[in-house]
Specification:
There is one protein chain. This protein is an all-alpha fold. It has 5 helices and no strands.
Amino acid sequence: LVAEAERHYRLALRESPDHGTAAYNLGIALEDLSRPSDAIEAYRLALAADPRLADAHFNIARLYEKTGKRAAALRHLSTYRRLTATS
């Protein structure tokens, strides 16, 4: 089922490469498939399309933390917090 979701989101991105939500959802599918490096790339694509995707910042921060990229993790976590802060 998750592999089918991956295929679906890749097809969506082929039709609309700047679809941030499709790229974000692809990242989630790739995480579920235990492919963190691919998930990071999908989240990067999502954020290139829409830098305001707070959940993509959170997820990529978590993956960067797991891979030892602390500076990148902190940068994305800070952005996540800024985007989700209440006034």
